[in-house]
Automatic annotation (TrEMBL):
One of its GO terms (molecular function) is phosphoglycolate phosphatase activity. Gene3D superfamilies: HAD superfamily/HAD-like, Putative phosphatase, domain 2. Belongs to the HAD-like hydrolase superfamily. CbbY/CbbZ/Gph/YieH family. It comes from Candidatus Micropelagius thuwalensis. Its EC number is 3.1.3.18. One of its GO terms (cellular component) is cytosol. SUPFAM superfamilies: HAD-like. This is phosphoglycolate phosphatase.
Length: 217
């Protein structure tokens, strides 16, 4: 397995997902989804939690719509999705701001910053919310751009390529979710899976480049 710095040695931009890649916040959001659906009973909560954990890169807007239509047989209006998203934000933002770093992530970002290597966040968290979290965690200096939802991760990768006039091979994407890998693979961007879950999910995919447990060097 090449070192982290070997992986990025020929890259112009390093792209990171946020939850589960830079900060240990996946469990916080899983708990929030449980709270959002607890009024519908334990069987629905279990389905929601399972789907969320297997689809970490999917935006909450799409998840709320999917859960209501698939598990509850109800269609949500845009205003309902926006209301639920606001409630979800209230449940998670403070906790995410105070959550622990993924081991080694802060030191890795600091080294990239010192080496003047450009870094970008591409997250499924709503745009204004991810910007707020990054600022309040005092992480903003590490990133030249921050991209959130509702724009898809695939489209956000395309925006990076166009804005910074780079090719897919000049990027590398560190992600922990199937949606991260799918976006990177579709765009032709090299991908590094972070954590055991994504390694297990992609065990049989030959075009997944590398896996790491965390960023400890």
């Amino acid at each position: 397995m090449p070192s982290l710095f070997d992986l990025i040695s020929d890259k112009k931009i390093v792209v990171f997902d946020f939850d589960g890649v830079l900060v240990d916040s996946v469990g916080i959001k899983a708990k929030a989804y449980e709270q959002m659906y607890e009024e519908y009973g334990s069987s629905i909560v279990k389905k929601v939690r399972s789907h969320h954990l297997q689809n970490g890169g999917m935006s909450r807007f799409k998840k709320f719509k999917y859960y209501h239509e698939t598990y509850l047989g109800e269609k949500l209006e845009l205003k309902d999705i926006e209301r639920m998203s606001q409630k979800f934000s209230e449940l998670v933002v403070t906790q995410v701001i105070s959550s622990n770093w993924i081991p080694g992530a802060q030191d890795f970002l600091q080294k990239l910053y010192e080496e003047k290597i450009d870094c970008v966040i591409v997250s499924a968290t709503p745009q204004l919310e991810i910007e707020q979290i990054v600022i309040e965690r005092k992480m903003a200096k590490y990133f030249i751009d921050i991209f959130g939802s509702p724009t898809s991760k695939y489209d956000n990768l395309g925006i990076i390529l166009t804005k910074h006039q780079v090719t897919p091979s000049e990027l590398i994407f560190f992600g922990d979710a199937l949606a991260d890998w799918q976006a990177a693979s579709k765009m032709g961007v090299p991908f590094v899976g972070v954590g055991k879950e994504i390694k297990d999910l992609l065990a049989n995919h030959l075009n997944c480049d590398h896996f790491i447990s965390n960023f400890e060097i």
